[in-house]
Amino acid sequence: MVMVIGLDQQLVKQIEDLCNARGVRLTSQRKRVFELICASPKASSAYELLEDLKLSEPQAKPPTVYRALDFLLEQGFIHRVESTNSYIQCCSCNAHKHHSHLLICDNCSNVIELQDDSLVALLTQNAEKHGFTINNHVIESHGICQSCASEKAN
């Protein structure tokens, strides 16, 4: 079971306030899925989230999780890790619209989200040189994190 003991309650309050301001409902299931995603440094698959959700809501089914994920993505509270078909918390919870760059450890599966406006500007500039307009982009880099690299060295 994934525990959410260390979950930042200010973060949960932030997304509750954003939902209220936007006039959208943060149901208990949506909130619980968000909490489960936040509880792990690793990206979580929909089925991992379903298994964890079933511990508190035994009747939960895949559509429950997928609807919650769709809502959380739409609101900008989470990111989809395209290469692994999994989900992580957005480091700014849509405090401002941004493009992120994900560093994914192939050893431990931890994911680090980076935001680099200069990288986005460079991508946009290069696309414009070719008459191309970027609507969306996903930047994911796979490798080995510092912690796993240190373990291998020892």
TrEMBL record:
Subcellular compartments: Cytoplasm
Entry note: cofactor: Binds 1 zinc ion per subunit. Binds 1 Mn(2+) or Fe(2+) ion per subunit.
Residues that coordinate or bind Zn(2+): C105, C108, C145, C148
Annotated CDD domains: Fur_like
Superkingdom: Bacteria
Species classification: Bacteria, Pseudomonadati, Pseudomonadota, Gammaproteobacteria, Vibrionales
Organism encoding this protein: Vibrio aquaticus
Entry annotated with the keyword Transcription: yes
Cofactor(s) of this protein: Zn(2+); Mn(2+); Fe(2+)
Entry keywords, A to Z: Cytoplasm, DNA-binding, Iron, Metal-binding, Repressor, Transcription, Transcription regulation, Zinc
Subunit structure: Homodimer.
InterPro entries: FUR, Fur_C, WH-like_DNA-bd_sf, WH_DNA-bd_sf
Family: Belongs to the Fur family.
Entry keyword annotation includes Hydrolase: no
GO biological process, one term: negative regulation of DNA-templated transcription
Protein name (record): Ferric uptake regulation protein
Molecular-function GO terms, alphabetical: DNA-binding transcription factor activity; transcription cis-regulatory region binding; zinc ion binding
A GO-annotated cellular component: cytosol
Binding site residues for Fe cation: H98, H137
